[in-house]
């Protein structure tokens, strides 16, 4: 099992080399993250990483390795921003270890790191494969589904029972948007189903409406 550690100042050069090996140059072509056909030069360097860390308080680099004394073979940048929003970037897995599930492990670790610091997570439960929803929903604080998405998450269940399933799996709040019928929702603290009516509007273009709803 890989060890998760926070970066140490003395290994920023090794982290820069890891990132460059995964995205630029001949080594990167061994994996699928190579940008070599589009961009030349380095993607980052020790000085840039050091400057970015100094300029962004609270940011850090999570690293993965087999032993504490080894160089990392995967990493990710994670940075707190405004209003419980965290940025994750520079996700890197050395080319020879790509396509083995490490990238997903890095993302899940970043999510857990942020959640442990009180950052809420939300899923936009649109129509997707049932197996994906079953995997993702238990890792979220708030699950907001469309009607098709909820039906895929809990096949054959009534909407309220589908929401209760999400609560039972660890969500703090669960809801389903139902267009003109409003939003059905409940919480872990108050499992009584409630309905928030929809506003009566003349809809002309609903692009982005769901994103705004989830963001609010």
TrEMBL record:
Ranges for domain Carbohydrate kinase PfkB: 103-216
UniProtKB keywords: Kinase, Transferase
Keyword Kinase: yes
GO CC aspect terms: cytosol
GO molecular function, one term: kinase activity
Gene3D superfamilies on file: 3.40.1190.20
Lineage top rank: taxon: Bacteria
Entry-linked SUPFAM superfamilies: Acyl-CoA N-acyltransferases (Nat), Ribokinase-like
Protein name: Carbohydrate kinase PfkB domain-containing protein
């Amino acid at each position: 099992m890989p060890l998760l550690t926070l970066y140490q100042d003395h290994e920023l050069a090794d982290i820069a080399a890891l990132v460059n090996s995964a995205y630029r140059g001949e080594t990167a072509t061994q994996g699928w993250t190579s940008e070599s056909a589009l961009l030349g030069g380095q993607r980052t360097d020790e000085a840039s990483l050091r400057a970015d860390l100094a300029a962004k308080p609270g940011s850090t680099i999570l690293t993965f390795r087999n032993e504490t004394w080894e160089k990392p073979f995967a990493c990710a940048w994670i940075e707190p921003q405004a209003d419980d929003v965290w940025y994750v970037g520079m996700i890197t897995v050395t080319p020879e270890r790509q396509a083995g599930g490490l990238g997903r492990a890095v993302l899940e670790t970043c999510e857990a790191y942020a959640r442990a610091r009180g950052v809420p997570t939300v899923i936009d439960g649109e129509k997707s494969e049932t197996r994906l929803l079953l995997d993702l929903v238990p890792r979220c604080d708030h699950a907001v589904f469309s009607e098709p998405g909820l039906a895929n998450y809990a096949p054959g269940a009534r909407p309220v029972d589908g929401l209760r399933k999400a609560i039972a799996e660890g969500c703090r709040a669960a809801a389903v948007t139902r267009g003109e019928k409003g939003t059905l929702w409940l919480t872990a603290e108050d499992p009584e189903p409630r309905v928030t009516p929809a506003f009566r509007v003349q809809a002309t273009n609903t692009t982005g409406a769901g994103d705004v709803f989830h963001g609010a």
